[in-house]
Amino acid sequence: MLATNNAKKLAELRRIVSAEAPDIDVLGLADVAHYPEPAETERSFEGNALLKARACVAATGFPALADDSGLAVDVLNEMPGVRSARWAGPGSSDGENNALLLRQLADVPAAERTARFVCAMALVLPDGTEHVRLGQMRGRLAVRPTGHHGFGYDPLFVAEGKTVTNGELEPSAKDAISHRGRAVRAILPVLVAELRRLEPVAQEG
């Protein structure tokens, strides 16, 4: 289970998992009965990811993956950080978040518009075992949004070594370098090993 209702995030994870471990099926929250999702009250990506994964396991009984990710802008003291999805306020859209960030960086020169995407991917198993892996993608912020791929701040973010925004990259090209892609690839060997460990228990049950 991936503890998310974000269809784009689920599609991104399924692409990465199918390339790395094609025998694993990834379900999203839309595939199971609704349950109350926990408020993201932690001050770290790792803490929020674990909150979501623990709640998913408790509600579904499935091994659960959950991520918390966001944008850390150097000149803004690594904000928006864990508030990235609601930077312009609760319920804010990607466009509103991007617009606010651009206003905050309006007088910041290009050399100082450095930032990084961070993703914490938590794996929690029904027996209480927990793992967390991190992924990062460094780059800089453009002066206007460009491209229609991806989501969140992708239309503003130009990864190191690239000349176009994440919003202009094809999904497979973004997956190869993204913070989430790196976090997923780091947790996948752990997930595979843990599922194999649990197989005899499942078969006995």
Give a quick rundown of the structure.
This protein has 205 residues and is of the alpha+beta class. It is built from five helices and five strands, in the order H-H-E-E-H-E-E-E-H-H. Helices cover 36% and strands 19% of the residues.
Q: Would you give an account of this structure?
A:
With 205 residues, this protein is an alpha+beta fold. 36% of the residues lie in helices and 19% in strands. The protein has five helices and five strands; from the N terminus they run H-H-E-E-H-E-E-E-H-H. A five-stranded antiparallel beta sheet has the order 2-1-3-4-5. A hairpin with a 5-residue loop joins strand 1 (64-73) and strand 2. The mean pLDDT is 92.
Which SSEs are present, and which pair or pack?
Elements: H1 7-20, H2 45-60, E1 64-73, E2 79-80, H3 94-104, E3 114-124, E4 130-141, E5 157-159, H4 171-177, H5 179-204
Antiparallel strand pairs: 1-2, 1-3, 3-4, 4-5
Helix pairs in contact: 1-5, 4-5
